[in-house]
Amino acid sequence: MTKIDIISGFLGAGKTTFIKKLLEEAIAGEKVVLIENEFGEIGIDGGFLQDSGIEIREMNSGCICCSLVGDFGRSLSEVLTKYEPDRVIIEPSGVGKLSDVMKAVCDVAGEIDVVLNGSVTVVDAQKCKMYMKNFGEFFNNQIESAGTIVLSRTDVADADKVAKAVELIREKNPKAAVVTTPIGRLTGAQLLEIIEKPTDDMAAELLEEVRQGHHHHEDEECCCGHDHEHHHHHHDHEDEECCCGHDHEHHHHHDHEEGECCCGHDHEHHHHHDHEDGECCCGHDHDHEHHHHHGHDADEVFTSWGLETSRSVSLERLNEILHDLAHTEKYGTVLRAKGMLPDENGVWHYFDMVPEETEVREGAPIYTGKVCVIGSGLKEDDLKELFH
Ligand SMILES: Nc1nc2c(ncn2[C@@H]2O[C@H](COP(=O)(O)OP(=O)(O)OP(=O)(O)O)[C@@H](O)[C@H]2O)c(=O)[nH]1
To answer: What gap in Å lies between CA 355 and CA 336, rounded to an integer?
Structure first.
């Protein structure tokens, strides 16, 4: 099975820079064929790729979007049969429609053993708005069709411009992962992971963790390959974040064991007498079935709120925010918060919050800033403002 990745993007967006990083850092051991379809000038990007020992099949047939289904499909089949690569990277001409290229790949996939693995669009953060306005026909199609959008030049672009670009992109494609961290700060492996699995739903995972009373790894294997059983005892990974996105630090402690519920009633003693038949005022379901785990019927009560952001937050401000979440009811009853945000110097802070307790530690950059909050009666508008 050959994986096919399409890396599209407007003229000069940074496609070659991105592909080069993938080739050098993430897929160096694979047999890769790069298919370029330059508009006019064939071969200008050939140099470094030949240097890295990768076979190239350049097509002289002009723009992909013009001669697509017949010509491109046949050339692609030819390449696949001749080289039997592990992976094909297609870099369409800057003015190709991504959806046309995707369609051509899917047509080939009907006949040959290939899979459309990733569809990426590289977008220049500084020019996004202008291109959308002036070249909408190609540009917007590339954005709408992409599974992952990589913003380039976020290392030099103004923060407001980057945020505006993300906003415009989100209007056209609410689902794609949008990479806002400068790619120079990420590893090729991280980028490949995002392309291959663009939907990483931290909110759903965290909600599940709260619902399950944090024991969800106990009987099943986690996707990350690390043994979390031992973690409880030995505390390895103490200072680092595991690749799986799960929080192994706090598994022990966030069911209200010591904390207080908003209702002022003591749920520890709930078994014995209070509220046995009556209803508690707090709106939480203290049903006995669930009480052992977390004291609430999670399905009915907890909601999650998530944010992805290109904005930085100073460490000082982050600590203030976390303090408010952990010690006040300003934003609703927050049971759990977690996330990763860069500060103004590009240092990434990973944070965790359970009622009355916060923790911040430094960690590796990830593709964009993330915040996830779980609780009841969350004031989402206020939370949104808080993190802006
Ligand atoms: N500062 C900065 N420069 C970048 C970034 N990405 C690309 N560039 C520069 O932008 C220029 C164009 O990048 P390429 O990777 O060649 O862009 P491309 O999309 O392959 O261009 P064409 O295929 O020729 O349309 C090069 O000079 C890159 O060094 C980025 O994230 N930050």
So the answer is: 7
Q: Which of 163, 166, 152 is nearest to 13 (CA)?
A: 152
Ligand 1 centre distance from Cα of residue 93 (Å): 14
**Statement: 202-217+246-259+285-386 belongs to CATH 3.30.1220.10:** yes
| Residue to probe by mutation, ligand 1, list 6, 8, 17, most atoms within 8 Å of CB | 17
**pLDDT, tens only, 91-149:** 887 667 888 888 888 888 888 888 999 999 999 999 999 999 988 888 899 999 999 99
Strands 357-363 and 348-354: antiparallel
CATH number for 2-196 (one of 3.90.226.10, 3.40.50.300, 3.20.20.370, 2.60.40.1180): it is: 3.40.50.300
Specify the residue with its C-alpha closest to ligand 1, atom 32: 153
96 lines ligand 1 (CB under 6 A): no
Q: Determine the Cα–Cα distance for residues 330 and 50; give it in Å rounded to an integer.
A: 59
**Is this complex scored with an ipTM above 0.95?**
yes
Neighbour order of strands in the sheet with 148-152: 55-58, 32-36, 87-91, 2-9, 114-124, 148-152, 177-179
- Dist. CA 217 → ligand 1 center (Å): 43
